């Protein structure tokens, strides 16, 4: 008699549509995240949306600086939707400022500033939405505002991103459509 395996494995097998957009591996320094065995070690049930308050190259350098003590799983570039992956999803990125939320979430940074809406381009929204849809499909995360949250909604957060110009209605429609 074979063992069915962990419940998350069935989610992966039942969701072949969890196809990720092209991403590029740019490892964060190992001092900026916790090695883990998610989702077996910690269930993944949230996506946390961030704005970098930096350019993509500057945020990348921060994630690679061992003194920074910060990282995210992914970052999306404003101009072309390029997606860099900095921490493997099985590991815990230090992005939310709350250990409980870090253990349960995938953190997606977006190049831009909360007071500069010109960085929130169509290509950024579309690339990010495809990524978020794939993450949600992989882990069985509902595609709603309860499970896709802003950094500013993390308990104890002192951050204000993704800010007032982030179009949640548009974003969730794109995520739900898988594009």
From TrEMBL:
Catalytic activity, EC: 3.5.1.28
Source superkingdom: Bacteria
Annotated GO biological process: cell wall organization; peptidoglycan catabolic process; peptidoglycan turnover
SUPFAM superfamilies from the UniProt entry: N-acetylmuramoyl-L-alanine amidase-like
Catalytic activities: Hydrolyzes the link between N-acetylmuramoyl residues and L-amino acid residues in certain cell-wall glycopeptides
GO molecular function: N-acetylmuramoyl-L-alanine amidase activity
Gene3D superfamilies: Peptidoglycan recognition protein-like
N-acetylmuramoyl-L-alanine amidase domain sequence ranges: 32-163
Xref: Pfam families: Amidase_2 (PF01510)
Coiled coil start-end: none
Keywords carried by this UniProt record: Cell wall biogenesis/degradation, Hydrolase
PANTHER family per UniProt: N-ACETYLMURAMOYL-L-ALANINE AMIDASE AMID
Protein name, UniProt field: N-acetylmuramoyl-L-alanine amidase
């Amino acid at each position: 008699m074979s063992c069915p395996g962990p419940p998350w494995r069935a989610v992966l097998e039942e969701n072949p549509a969890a196809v990720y957009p092209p991403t590029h591996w740019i490892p964060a320094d190992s001092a900026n995240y916790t090695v883990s065995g998610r989702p077996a070690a910690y269930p993944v049930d949230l996506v946390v949306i961030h704005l970098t308050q930096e350019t993509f190259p500057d945020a990348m350098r921060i994630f690679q600086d061992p003194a920074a003590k910060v990282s995210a799983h992914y970052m999306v570039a404003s101009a072309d939707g390029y997606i860099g992956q900095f921490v493997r999803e099985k590991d815990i990125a230090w992005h939310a400022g709350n250990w409980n939320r870090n253990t349960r979430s995938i953190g997606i940074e977006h190049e831009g500033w909360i007071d500069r809406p010109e960085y929130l381009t169509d290509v950024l929204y579309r690339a990010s939405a495809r990524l978020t849809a794939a993450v949600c499909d992989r882990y069985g995360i509902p595609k709603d505002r309860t499970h896709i949250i802003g950094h500013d909604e993390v308990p104890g957060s002192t951050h204000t991103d993704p800010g007032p110009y982030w179009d949640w209605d548009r974003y969730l429609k794109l995520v739900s459509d898988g594009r």
